[in-house]
UniProtKB/TrEMBL annotation:
Protein name (record): Zinc ribbon domain-containing protein
Keyword Membrane in annotation: yes
TM ranges: 7-28, 48-68, 80-98, 104-122
Keyword presence, Transmembrane: yes
Length: 153
């Protein structure tokens, strides 16, 4: 796995969007019908739940660009393509899983669990304040790099 929270955030956004989408279809179908017959990409001047859904889609696109940038900086082009294929399959799985689970009302629990997993991953990545001057790996504190043995002061 790459050293980034963006891929997990992308899957979380897909899960959130799918949950909102299914919630709209179950609880406020007239809002979804309005959107279906009057499609828009603007999250303004639409009902609140639809605005949240559209904002999550826009945020998904922005994070997808961040994932692409991060992937091609950290991996070779061939490895990045295969990573993207795996990430796309994970997003597709999240979409169908959360659509089906939200329909039977346990998707909300899974979404809360997914958010906790994401928060834990973000909290774990915050601990790295430094980078090695020789190899560029992340370090929690100054001193000897555990990856290449260089002394960082």
């Amino acid at each position: 796995d790459i050293d980034s929270v963006y891929p997990l955030f992308l899957c979380l956004l897909m899960a959130f969007s799918a949950t909102i989408y299914e919630s709209m279809q179950v609880f406020v179908p007239e809002t979804w019908e309005h959107f279906y017959f009057n499609p828009t990409l603007s999250p303004f001047k639409v009902p609140f739940i639809l605005s949240v859904f559209l904002l999550s889609i826009w945020l998904f696109l922005i994070v997808a660009l961040a994932v692409l940038d991060d992937l091609f900086r950290q991996l070779t082009p061939a490895a990045a393509i295969f990573y993207l294929l795996g990430l796309m399959s994970c997003c597709i799985f999240c979409y169908f899983f959360f659509i089906l689970m939200t329909h039977i009302y346990i998707g909300y629990l899974f979404l809360a669990f997914f958010m906790l997993v994401f928060a834990k991953k973000v909290h774990r990545n915050i601990g790295y304040k430094y980078r090695c001057g020789r190899c560029g790996e992340k370090l929690k504190q100054k001193g000897v790099c555990p990856h290449c043995g260089a002394i960082n002061e």
